[in-house]
Amino acid sequence: MGTTNDSVVSEFVLIGLSNSWEMHRFLFCFFTMFYMGVILGNLFIVFTVIIDFHLHTPMYFLLANPSLLDLGLSSTTVPKMISDLFTDCNIISFPKCMIQIFFIHVMGGVEMVLLIAMAYDRYTAICKPLHYLTIMSPKTCVSFVVAAWMVGIIHAVSQFVFVINLPFCGPNEVDSFYCDFPRVMKLACVDTYKLEFVIIANSGFISMSTFFSLIISYIFILVTVWKRSSGDLSKAFVTLSAHITVVILFFMPCMFLYVWPFPTTSLDKYLFIVDFAITPVLNPTIYTLRNKDMRVAMRRLGKWIVGPSGIS
């Protein structure tokens, strides 16, 4: 812990997504619209789950946590992106860049574990319905959330301690709209070849292993339902299709970037628009519009907000 960062670089320049003024205006409107959807949609889900006692179940408890994470993950990058597009000032200080990297990986690690918890919840509900409430007890759900945060923090710290002490003394242009390990590491004044394997072993491995574990678990659930009753297969598939969609959208950019952490193209920064803007706004849409209990709860919440003074 006695090492210090000998950086002379005090700030980084975020290249962004485009140099075109017309594209800047489009992206400003795009990110502003999606970020408003992220805030309103996810906060509404969390608020509805908290207020409506009908939703005080393991499934919705686990659903509310990823909504908070989607809001936090999006807020680490999108507001800065909107500000840069509006002011045309793409500067981020060294400390803020490091903080952004840290929180991206904390919340990303937490969300991966929670997706596993949600898959386990659906497995229990579909394959062991009689034991569901016993297995998915409040204690189990809280344990999942605590474990998720522990994994997320360990996941971020185990990489962050190496990057924070890298010397940055030359180029300071980050070819992206946000700070992250692979592109920031490329600017270091030392050989980061060994650190590349740390990223692969950590972010790359956890992304790949979690993705394939989730896909295998969903296939196992569908096969189990098919063996029991082919008539229920379509219902199970509809239930799981939203989870599968979220998993594919969430992990596709992660695996593209972190399995080979020194990108030679700029494709990854466009892919991560999905994780930071599109997926966080899709989650509320998927889980509310396709879920009868949530729609009913939203109507109850709407009547409660309007109150007796509302139009009858």
Automatic annotation (TrEMBL):
CDD domains: 7tmA_OR4-like. The keyword Transmembrane applies. It is found in: Cell membrane; Membrane. PROSITE patterns: G_PROTEIN_RECEP_F1_1, G_PROTEIN_RECEP_F1_2. GO terms for cellular component: plasma membrane. Its main location: membrane. It is a multi-pass membrane protein. Residues 41-287 form the G-protein coupled receptors family 1 profile domain. The chain crosses the membrane at residues 26-51, 98-120, 141-164, 205-225, 237-258, 270-289. GO terms for molecular function: G protein-coupled receptor activity; olfactory receptor activity. SUPFAM superfamilies: Family A G protein-coupled receptor-like. Keywords: Cell membrane, Disulfide bond, G-protein coupled receptor, Membrane, Olfaction, Receptor, Sensory transduction, Transducer, Transmembrane, Transmembrane helix. Putative odorant or sperm cell receptor. Belongs to the G-protein coupled receptor 1 family. This is Olfactory receptor. It comes from Enhydra lutris kenyoni (northern sea otter). The gene is LOC111138721.
